[in-house]
Design brief:
The complex is a heterodimer of chains A (73) and B (278). With 73 residues, chain A is of the alpha+beta class. Chain A is built from 1 helix and 4 strands; from the N terminus they run E-E-E-E-H. Chain A has one domain (4-65). Chain B has a 5-stranded parallel β-sheet with strand order 1-5-4-2-3. The longest helix of chain B is centred in the middle third of the chain and has 16 residues, at 87-102. Classes of the chains: A alpha+beta (73), B alpha/beta (278). The A-B interface holds A 1-3, 6, 8, 16, 18, 21, 23, 25-26, 30, 32-35, 37-44, 46, 61, 64-65, 68-73 and B 30-32, 34-35, 38-39, 87-89, 91, 116, 119-120, 122-127, 168-172, 174-183, 185, 190, 200-202, 241, 278.
């Protein structure tokens, strides 16, 4: 199978820059989210539509990002 | 970087053409251990770094008998060309590469650009779990010259006996954050090992995930005073990002004395009394 409807976009979530990658394989949309720096994937979700997969992944990512603490340096 | 330059890199084109050849085994190793199930290079094995590329009892690299079992179950023998790739521009592919070199596997390569480039190029993906005829694999004695342990790092920091390269993000280096955004904190203190230079791993790569050219990499490290003339120790948080930088310095630039400190900040940043710079 070839992935279809591939996209890779950068946006801000909970104050952090992230990269959202989505593609369709067969009947399933796969979405994964990585922090922009350093670039680690930390949330993903599947769905029957792009919107469903991305909204689920974004919800998880937002929850995790909100737990990231910043310290004064 | 051209596929023919170092014999440790292959292109996505090469994998598409030769990935299922006899004597070649493609293996996906991801940060996100579920990524393999979201589609992988057809015929590729999938290794889970959290259970198969480390000791699951004590904090350590994979024990030799477990590695031999894993390679045997993946249909890999001592002469197989192992081609590794994964997400995050090959972070854990490099982690696997480093361990295979510790245990003396001769022919190990990385697919330049990793999963990111394969996907962006719209190449075939499979969701079938690959199975392989079992082989018997015999690893060599561990080559610990590729690995730095805490006492050596402490000595290097105190006596400036080696160039310490911190490959984490600038925010981790300064202690503004304790872990990459969205990931769990694994240390008690933020900052970096005294004397370390900040050269984030991402500077090794182009936007498409491929490695930068030899000349670009050489110039980038030279600008930070890292030339390979003295020993180098790379570290990050748990040792996987630094294994990518280790790969670049050892196998793309040809530095002879480069070690990966896999204890990394998770070890140093939890040590009672360890000196920290911010």
């Amino acid at each position: 199978m070839k992935p279809e409807d591939y996209s890779r976009i950068r946006r801000e979530l909970a104050g952090w820059q992230v990269t959202i990658e989505t593609y369709k394989l067969g009947d399933v949309y796969h979405c994964s989210i990585a922090n922009f720096d350093p670039g680690a994937r930390f949330a993903r979700a599947d769905g029957s539509t792009r919107e469903e997969a991305e909204s689920r992944a974004i919800a998880k990512a937002t929850k995790y990002l909100q737990q990231t603490r910043k310290f004064d340096v | 970087m051209a596929a023919t330059l170092p014999n440790v890199l292959v292109t996505t084109d090469w994998v598409a053409q030769h990935g299922t050849d006899a004597g070649v085994r493609v293996v996906e190793v991801d940060v996100d251990t579920a990524a393999y199930d979201q589609g992988h290079v057809p015929g590729a094995a999938g290794w889970n770094w959290t259970t198969q590329l480390c000791d699951t009892l004590v904090r350590d690299i994979v024990p030799v008998n477990k590695l031999e079992e894993l390679l045997g179950a993946s249909g890999i023998d001592n002469k197989t060309a192992v081609v590794l790739y994964g997400d995050n521009n090959n972070w854990f592919a490099a982690w696997a590469f480093w361990q295979l070199k510790i245990y003396g596997h001769d022919d190990v390569r990385i697919m330049d650009g990793g999963r990111k480039k394969w996907l962006a190029e719209g190449r075939d993906l499979s969701t079938d779990k690959s199975t392989f005829p079992k082989t018997t694999y015999k690893a060599k004695a561990a080559d610990t010259s590729l690995r730095a342990f805490l006492p050596e790092v402490q000595s290097a920091s105190a006596g400036k006996k080696a160039a310490l390269v911190d490959v984490r993000s600038p925010q981790e280096f300064t202690g503004e954050i304790l872990a990459p955004p969205g990931l769990p904190e694994t240390c008690q203190r933020g900052g970096h090992i005294p004397g370390a230079k900040s050269i984030p791993w991402g500077k090794n790569c182009n936007e498409d995930g491929t490695f930068k050219s030899f000349d670009e990499l050489k110039a980038m490290y030279a600008a930070q005073g890292v030339t390979g003339d003295q020993p180098v120790i790379a570290y990050c948080r748990i040792g996987e990002r630094s294994s990518l930088t280790w790969f670049v310095m050892r196998h793309l630039l040809g530095f002879q004395n480069v070690k990966n400190y896999d204890g990394s900040w998770t070890e140093w940043g939890n040590l009672v009394g360890a000196p920290v710079e911010k």
